[in-house]
Records
---
Amino acid sequence: MSERENILGRIREALKVNAPLPGWHGERSAEHLSAGDPAANARNLAARSGTASDWLPLVGASVAEQFELFAKNAADLKADFQLLASRDELKAALLKLRDAEKWRRVASHGGELTDFACKALGLPVTLTDCGYDVQEMEQCDAGITECDALIAQTGGVAVTSRSAGGRALSVLPPHHVVLARREQLVADLPAAFALLQQKYAPDFPSMISFITGPSRTGDIERILVLGAHGPKKLTILCV
Amino acid sequence: MSTFVSDFKTRATEKAGDLRHRQVIRTALRGYEIVRDKRKAAFQSWESARQAAAETKWEAVNHLDKHLEALTAKLEARGTKVHWASTGEQAREIIAQILRDKKARCIIKSKSMTSEEIHLNHALEKEGFTVVESDLGEFIVQLRHEPPYHLVFPSMHLTRGEIKDLFQKELGDAPSDAPEELTMVARRVMRQKYIQADVGFTGANFAIAETGMISITENEGNARLTAALPKTMVTLIGIEKVLPRFADLALFLPMLATAGAGQPMTCYNTMYSGPRQPGECDGPEEWHVVLLDNRRTELLADAEQRDALHCIRCGACLNVCPIFRNVGGHTYGTTYSGPVGAVITPHLRGLQEWKHLSNASSLCGACTEACPVKIDLHHHLLQNRRNASASEPAFFERLAYQIFGIVANEPAFWSLAKKLGWLTQPLQKVVKGSALDPARAWTKTRDLPAQPRESFKDWWRNRK
């Protein structure tokens, strides 16, 4: 018999005895045991009201409030968020970054916003779409990607291996620049998960990543340091 | 007395008296409760979220067989190789065989407590593989040849000065003791390792049955790089980490971050559903997922304590535990320390040898209150005490309580005992804390309270 069957066998044997339902601290008694009635269990579990959106931190209903919350959360995370009015402003913002940090080479991927950005920057670009040299990407000053969603509740972005040029582009270069469209803002995490499921299921990209601020660590005396292994800077430009 | 007990007692005595150690831990945890409570308060209802999380985990664990089958089918459909291991030894052999097949030399590893549980690094190094821990805290304790001090903060017992000296000695590179500069040293060392490594190894925080995904939570980006650059990826995961649905993560990810470190969200929460897929530009060509039992099914079989498998390893119960804060993480001598370690270790490694951990608790219940998935931790400690004494009664303890019972039930004996107490108390002061003192376990570091001049009974009789 394979280990798979051994393990599943032990699990089935163990589950023949029912466990008390959760949340009955210190009052374990027969009446709280589920007593082998699956229907009763289902009823008990369904009895709670509301969904995750009702319990997680509050998000305003209007788009303006949500952008305000996103900006506040991003600032708390030490990410740079800029809400831009036009493509011209996007171009200006990118050029300002390029000049301030003396970018010489950037890495990016094919996409409507990223193509615009690469053209605007006028720098040599390492594109990931048809494979790339890892050492070359490591030498790039910034990784420029699109994304799937901005999440007002957390101030973070959701990227996937399909929307953001693979797995490494958003973590290898020292500065990650996310390009987003206004309509990509979602209120909260449940909305972001629903969006990803609707957009991709069942053929999900092999990597989905919720990026909430630039890479960080507190492993030395719990003191915050940015740029542990991933990007030291995260800039989110939204048009 | 087993060596586990005596080692625990020796280390606990030493650490509890080590004021420097206590200062370091206090500094490290100073801000934790404040930021965590601020984050909890930001929830519209943290209590409802806890209840929902507990119920979701209950559902997952109580239908574990179905969820594991669904998870496996989904993973395999996308080209992932799924392995099952009943024991740590089997898991080590599966992983070593993958490395041998790949002719791998260097393995870059992101944080995984499950790999600590099966002593993976040691086994792989013995076979000649180079294993590099990429999480900063894990990297630091690896350089010190030490196990992690805490589930989430592996190097919280070290000061920046100690880390500077360590880097100077082991890496020859430590410009100053500033955390920023020390972190950059590790960043420089690690960058090339990601690129050169043949295999990337990760742990996992959750597995999603519905969509066949593994979810990894981290702040540094080291797991992201580990899962992006090497050609082969190996993930080790305990069978209890399953969640039923993709959408469940919308609740669990912020709760893990809040309970674990007082963050709204951990920096990177990443779901992997396969190796590199057609049309994708990077990622591993092969992905192996190893599902580990290692006596988790024994805990599953104990219906009373089954909820201990709900644990998401956030470390909240360690952070608030007065015992953990005084004796420290290494004192436990277990992979999983603190209250949750005290509950599960007797199941994973033997009740009689690890029953002493059930007494490493003040039963204050701070752990139970802190747990985001409502594991009934302090009651489980009591249940472990009960189970341990039922399967192997402690003769002297039982005798002592029997004698106390007789004395306390018989007024004549009781007043005799009081008189004896009066007579022997001055004597106790002379032998206090020495080998002759019957109460020395208590009096070595404390004073025995003086017996009052007048007992309640005397006062009652003599009152006007």
Note: Chain A has two domains: 3-48, 53-238.
---
Amino acid sequence: MSALRLTAVVKEYPGDVTALKRVSVDIPEHDQVAVVGPSGSGKTTMLTILGTLERPTDGQVEVLGHPVGPASDRELAGLRAQGIGFVFQAFHLQESMSAVDNVALGMLYGGAPLRRRREAARAALVRVGLEHRLDFRPKQLSGGERQRVAIARAVAKRPLILLADEPTGNLDSKSGGEVIELLHGLADDGATLVLITHDEQIASEFRRRLQMRDGEIVDDRRR
Amino acid sequence: MTVAAEARLPLRELLTSALQGLGTSRLRAALSALGIAIGIGAMVAVVGVSASAQANLLAEIDALGTNLLTLSPGTSFLGQNEVLPPTSVPQILHQSGVLDAVAIYQLSENVYRSPYVPAAQTGGIGVDATGQDLPQVVGTSMASGHFLNAVSAGYPETVLGAQAAQILQIEHVGGHELVYIGNRWFLIVGVLEPVVLDSSLDSDAFISLPVAEKLFQTQPNASEIYVRANQNKVIPVSNLLPASADPQDPSGVSISRPSDALEARAAAKGQFTTLLLGLGAVALLVGAIGIANIMVISVLERRGEIGLRRALGATRRHIGVQFLAESALLAVLGGVAGLALGAGATDVYALTRHEPFVVPVYALVAAPAAGFAIGALAGLYPALRAARLSPTEALRA
């Protein structure tokens, strides 16, 4: 069964900008995909459409078997709350919250009570190797540690889909390597991973590599 | 997998997240809450100050007693002035439940400093004959000197009401100030304090009834009788009084209770000044605009957070409610601060005026409630903007 499927997806932005030109791709469950391509090739746009943060101008999107087109805002939000974890280049951590609360925030909209969310958050932070940083604020953490908190936030709810947009973009190569290794390890537990990167070295470690250019997938190869 | 229904955020989570949101820019939040605090504080102070003034007046009335009744001859069926019989006072004194009674008899004389004052310059001072109990019964005391007594019954002595003394420029009684009443010199033996329950007595001069009868041939028909009733029997006593005063013609007697009028005045005093409340409302409006302004800025600054929350599964509604809760919480805090501010101002006012400190109970609920309503209203537009924000646009910021 496919986790994510795009069929002839077009995304246009106001001002005659076409970010995606009839993109079709099928990503089966448990697949681990690296998306590479120059800036402006449509990588991030595709990721936001896969993550149901945006709807396509044309074409069909299916996430975990649900067609996105007819779904309401509430249904898509529910899908994201339960099934999709995001990791961003800019971490997007809340400065006023501790690491545990930042991770617990990732499960807020799933409806679990705070105590249970904090428990899961602690477990997730242990999994990403931050058991000694539970009550630290983002300001007190290094870049690599911050991204690991963000990853813990994405995976604490055990999503079926993990979407990462240049998670190593703000990190040095050592902590970047650790983050990628971590993501692979977590995805091996059963999630479908789609990761955008500029780094060919990182992409080469993925089972599947999508090359994008000018809003199209120009190359799709498996290792 | 099935798509779960939209998660409902528990109130506690909503408040926690609102507090955290406000915590990101504390000074700004405090300043915008101050606007609401000033508006609500002004309104609470207006309500509190007038309630305190009212409570003070009511306490004063209570101290003077609400058991004073006034009898006067009414007008008959045919429009003629009735006359109270000379036996009225002794008969009233026999009625059960009556503690004391005293009559005044109006004279058609005037009071002058000397015979050389032109007759037309009466100063509006009336002359009444009365008994020795008048001050006790109407609830006043002497500002100076003493009231008419057994001696006054045989000599031309007079006591002035507070306002009459002022008009005649007599500040205190030294024992040899004289006034000229009806072609005779009278010695002033006392000046009364103002009579709160019946201020018409303040502009009168009082002489004893025997003197009045001897010198001015006054008829012993009372023009007004003041009665102190047992506090618990005021109504039954007042129902029986006409029959006691004039058994022949009870319908010709009219009765009033002076404290009633004063209580009505106190109630009117308790009505807060609309103008001042209006000023408070303007301050509130400015405060509300301040909050709306702050929230719009906050939405712009926290686009990243909004995008993140949307990515984490928040619906548009979740985002809108979060910002609405923040602005409502901000204004409720402002409302509570305003309540404290207004109560403090009322307290200072009451202390300086020696009045009781009163803030109406409804203000305790109304102040935070008004804050909530204003905050929710002011936050509506910013919350809508936040909810409408596209998640990807927000994440890019």
Note: Chain A is about 35% helix and 30% strand.
